Automatic annotation (TrEMBL):
Main localization category: membrane
Keyword vocabulary terms for this entry: Amino-acid transport, Cell membrane, Membrane, Transmembrane, Transmembrane helix, Transport
Domain called ABC transmembrane type-1: residue spans: 97-389
Compartments where located: Cell inner membrane; Cell membrane
Transmembrane segments: 30-49, 103-123, 189-209, 230-250, 270-289, 371-392
SUPFAM superfamilies with a match to the protein in the record: MetI-like
CDD domains reported in the protein's UniProt record: TM_PBP2
PANTHER family: AMINO-ACID ABC TRANSPORTER PERMEASE PROTEIN YHDX-RELATED (PTHR30614:SF37), MEMBRANE COMPONENT OF AMINO ACID ABC TRANSPORTER (PTHR30614)
Official protein name in the record: Amino acid ABC transporter permease
């Protein structure tokens, strides 16, 4: 028999967890490094600001934005809002912002239209059409945009005749080295009513298209929207125009002295800037459209042909909607480039935000504030365009099932 009292054997070693410093934690180190980096950025920024303010004060240079409320004392040739030399600097800068927006928006619309047409033409089976589109793209893409602005400005101001010998391609339209003059409807409440009716028609057509999409998803059949939409877009403004008096009077330009008065006037600076930016950017958009179309598989073309669809219908309803996911992101960059390239307007005398801010800077001597306002204006416009295009890109993105 064995004795119940056993001698205990050697006990198993107890694992001792080594002490660990909090600096060995990767998460802690990451947060710490970010805090240190942020502190360094703040310190450098504070040093630059403090040093700049000290240097400005030592040279008796005024700082701040109080000058915006003072009288500007200079005229601006093109304005979208009432402005005179007695207006404030803030109003002058706002005029420059609006002029920049005008050029940018018009340029974006026409550059997109021209770019899509040229991009599709490059893929045409017509040899001559495809080669002409290629020449357009390769020529305009490889010439600096500033030179193109000088070319168009010189063409308008040097080649076209003076107002007294102005060219008249259409009755009431005059082309001269002072710009383009054309008749417009005389100011009347009916035209404003027609504009409001058109905007209302756009909203109604959009609602009809959404409703048609839902019906198609539910039943497989799509109600007709083309003819009702055109009827609303054309008919509703006509009805509003007729109800408010149906005016037909035109404000026609007439030569008085050395220039035309009346009608719609397009200055040589605005025309040259818009033409240069539009045609230059359209060449890049055309290449984007071409690459987007080629990114769609050939099977899509073959399937559409097997269904008996015509090439135009295939391109509009099948190929382009799929190509948009490739086209939209780089096209957004081109929109931003066009907007930023509008700052070259100062080279041909168009009063954009850069030109107006430079004049303000020369009169007030407050360079930092004016440059900051220019940067803020372009940053705001660029971020707005980016946000809209990103929203549109997400809206048209293909959803995997």
């Amino acid at each position: 028999m064995t004795n119940g009292n056993r001698r205990p054997g050697p006990s198993a070693p107890v694992a001792v967890r080594p002490s660990r410093s909090f600096l060995n934690d990767a998460g802690v180190r990451a947060v710490l490094f970010q805090i240190l980096a942020m502190a360094m950025v703040i310190a450098v920024g504070w040093f630059l600001v403090d040093n700049t303010l000290y240097n400005l004060a030592s040279r008796n240079i005024q700082t701040g934005f109080d000058y915006l409320t003072r009288e500007s004392g200079f005229a601006i040739g093109e304005t979208l809002i009432p402005y005179s030399a007695t207006s404030t600097y803030a109003t002058a800068l706002w005029v420059g912002v609006l002029n920049t927006l005008k050029v940018s928006l018009i340029g974006i619309v026409f550059a997109t239209l021209i770019g899509v047409v040229i991009g599709v033409a490059r893929l045409s089976s017509n040899w001559l059409l495809a080669r002409l589109a290629t020449i357009y793209v390769e020529s305009l893409r490889n010439v600096p945009v500033l030179l193109q602005l000088f070319f168009w400005y010189g063409l308008i101001t040097e080649v076209l005749p003076s107002p007294r010998q102005a060219m008249q391609p259409i009755e009431g339209v005059f082309l001269s080295n002072r710009g383009f003059k054309m008749p417009v409807p005389a100011d009347h409440a009916a035209w404003w009513a027609a504009l409001v009716a058109f905007l209302v028609a756009v909203v109604i057509v959009r609602v009809l298209m959404i409703r048609a999409n839902r019906i198609q998803e539910r039943t497989g059949e799509r109600p007709r929207t083309l003819l009702p939409g055109l009827g609303l877009l054309i008919g509703l403004p006509l009805v509003a125009w007729a109800v408010f008096g149906a005016p037909t009077a035109l404000d026609t330009p007439a030569l008085k002295g050395f220039n035309f008065v009346g009608g719609l006037s397009v200055s040589p600076e605005f025309a040259a800037l818009t033409l240069g930016l539009t045609l230059y950017t359209a060449a890049f958009i055309a290449e984007t459209v071409r690459s987007g179309i080629q990114a769609v598989g050939k099977g899509q073309w073959e399937a559409a042909a097997a269904l008996g669809l015509k090439p135009g219908v295939t391109m509009r309803l099948i190929i382009l909607p799929q190509a948009l996911r490739v086209i939209v992101p780089p096209t957004t960059s081109q929109f931003l480039n066009l907007t930023k390239n509008s700052s070259l307007a100062v080279a041909i005398g168009y009063p954009d935000i850069v030109s107006v801010a430079n004049t303000t800077l020369n009169q007030t001597g407050q360079a930092i504030e004016n440059i900051a306002l220019i940067m803020l204006a372009y940053l705001t416009v660029s971020l707005t365009i980016s946000a809209f295009m990103n929203w549109y890109n997400k809206r048209i993105a293909l959803v995997e099932r």
